[in-house]
Amino acid sequence: LHKAEETVKVREARVAAQSSEVHRIQDEKKALEEKLHKAGETEKASETKVAAQSAELRQVQDAKKVLEQKLHKAEETVKVREARVAAQSSEVHRIQDEKKAL
């Protein structure tokens, strides 16, 4: 009977130790699940931020294209006007030369 009682005490101690270990592992598991959940939320937030930045980048690129087109058009207008001024200047010189000849 005494030996049986000792065996029971030893086994109860083992069960208590194992139960304590199970609780510790469950706590670790819960902490890891919380970290995983937070990581998932951070990932979603980052994805949302990247999507917003991507949309903003597309808007900036579109605006840049529009500005480049306007610049090109302005450059073409300047060339046309410079050609007109050159032609008018040439006409003025021709008229002045005719005036001197008279």
Explain this structure to me?
The chain is mainly alpha-helical and 102 residues long. The chain is built from one helix and no strands. The chain is rod-shaped and about 150 Å long. The relative contact order is 0.03. The mean pLDDT is 97.
Tally of individual helices: 1
Beta-strand proportion: under 5%
Envelope shape: rod-shaped
Q: What assembly state would you assign to the polypeptide chains in this entry?
A: single chain
Portion in helices: over 70%
H-E string: H
Helices and strands, with pairings:
Blueprint: H1 2-101
What's this model, at a glance?
By secondary structure, this protein is an all-alpha fold. It is built from one helix and no strands.
How would you describe this structure in keywords?
102 residues, mainly alpha, 1 helix, rod-shaped
